[in-house]
Amino acid sequence: MTELLSTHGLVARYGDFQALYDVDVEVDEGEVIALIGANGAGKSTFLRAVLGLLPVKPEMVRFEGRPIGGTPTDQMVKKGMAVVPEGRRLFTGMSVTDNLRVAIDQTSRHGSKGDWTLDRVHQLFPILKEKARVPVQNLSGGQQQMVAIGRALLCQPRLLLCDEISLGLAPKVIREIYAVLPEIRAQGTSIVVVEQDVGLAKSASDRLYCMLEGRVTLSGRSDDVTREQISEAYFGGGHAVV
Ligand SMILES: Nc1ncnc2c1ncn2[C@@H]1O[C@H](COP(=O)(O)OP(=O)(O)O)[C@@H](O)[C@H]1O
Ligand SMILES: [Mg+2]
Known about the structure:
Number of helices: 10
Helix content: 25-40%
CATH superfamily of the domain at 3-88 and 156-235: P-loop containing nucleotide triphosphate hydrolases
CATH architecture of the domain at 3-88 and 156-235: 3-Layer(aba) Sandwich
Structural class: alpha/beta
Largest sheet: 6 strands, mixed
Strand order of the largest sheet: 8-9-10-5-11-12
Distance between the termini: 34 Å
Shape: globular
Bound molecules: adenosine-5'-diphosphate, magnesium ion
Order of helices and strands: EEEEEHEEHEHHHHEHHEHEEH
Strand content: 15-25%
Radius of gyration: 17 Å
C-alpha cells in the first residue's frame, strides 16, 4: 500500500505541558484508521498537530512523501487534508447549503479539483437536500454532523480527519453516519476517525491506534486486536473495557 500520511516521533506541547510523546502513526491510501483512547489521551491534539494548528517540526509529519509538519492549516487543506472538528463548528445563522458553499468557494479559490459536488453530498446525505435552506442551528445534532462531513468532503480531501463524529448522537444516527464511510473511501479518500466507542472504532476501521497519556500504547489490524489488548492499552492495565 502507498503511504499517504505518517508521523515520526511527533511531539506537541501546550506551553509547558507536553501532550504528545513520540507518536508514530501511518495512514495508507484507501485506509480507514481509528484512533481510540480515553478523554484527554491526546487524540484531538494529534489531529491539531497533523493539521499545523500546533507548532511541530516539518519532518514529524509527512504527507504524500513530503515533510509538511507545521505548515499553516489552510495550506494543509489545499494539499488534501480536511477535518470534521470536535463540536462541528458550523456557521450558525447560515443555511445548510450556504455552509456547504463556503467549502466549495474556498476550494475553487485554491484551484483544487475533485469529484465531490453538492449533488454527491446530497446523494450521501439526502436529508441535506431536503433541509437545504434551513439554518444549521435548527437541525438535529446528527444532521449538523452530516453538514460538517459534507463541508469537509467539498474541500476535496485525500485524507479526511474526523474528531468524535458520534459524540452525543443516538445509536441509529451514529449507524447512519458511519454507513457512509465506505462510500467516502470508495471515492478515493482515506479516513482517520477519532472515536471513543471501541466497538464502533473496531468495526469501522482497517487498523487502529490506541493512545494513553499522549503515547501510542497499541496499534494493529482492527480484526486482530483483542478486547483484552485494547483494555490494557486504553487504561494502562488492570482495568476492563466496559
Ligand atoms: N488548549 C489546551 N491547553 C492546554 N492543555 C490542553 C489544551 N487542549 C488539550 N489540552 C490537554 O492535552 C491533553 C490531551 O487533550 P486532547 O488532545 O483534547 O485529548 P482527547 O482528544 O484525547 O480527549 C489533555 O491533558 C488536555 O487537558
Ligand atoms: Mg478530543
